[in-house]
Design brief:
Blueprint: E1 2-3, H1 7-13, E2 17-18, E3 22-26, H2 33-46, E4 51-55, H3 62-68, H4 72-77, E5 79-83, H5 87-96, E6 105-109, H6 113-118, H7 124-145, E7 149-153, E8 155-158, E9 163-166, H8 170-175, E10 178-184, E11 190-197, E12 206-212, E13 215-218
Amino acid sequence: MFIPISEPIDKLLGGGLEKGCITNFYGPPGSGKTQIAMVATASISSKGMRVVFIDTEGGFSFERLKQLVDDYESALKRIILFRVYSWKEQNECINKLINFENIKAVIVDSIVALWRLEISKENAFVINQQLAKQLSILARIASEKNIPVLITNQVYSDIEKGELELSSRNVVKSWSKNLVELIHAGKPNHRIAIVRKARAIPEGRRVEFEIYEKGLREVKFKLF
């Protein structure tokens, strides 16, 4: 079962955000992660459903929300927004979600921004353990409430491999049932989304889309 959020993403994922699991959108800065998080929030709240948005980077925009929805006041009433400023606050916030009732989606943008600021060689084991616990709670919420959880993830350059790697590597990968890589398509507002891991979708499936005022739309003419 899925919750549709936007035509190009729905097409990519076979219907929308999958209920009961974590879907992870990852990519470099400017690849469209927060745009997808905002579009999903707008779409779900506009359908009359309550959605939790945990903002760790200051990416949630009320002005953008106004562009994305027809009834701003009604949509806003269905969004439970948490702005967290520290790793400790993120831990506390995610722990509280277990007791939330009547929520239909959880969105975390981004799961690792504050993790990257907190982690060091001295505390890596403890911080990674805390990250794993957060993800286990999100996975439990998704499963028990049968709702989708959308997280965004940053990347870094692995010099030895010569490729981009997810921040936190296997910690987040192992808990994400659906992994979608986002790439800048080389043209303003154009992005490419590629399925890298999924439970029921072929790996490598891709869609090119454009970010515009009212959301996302598929680009029929492919740049590459």
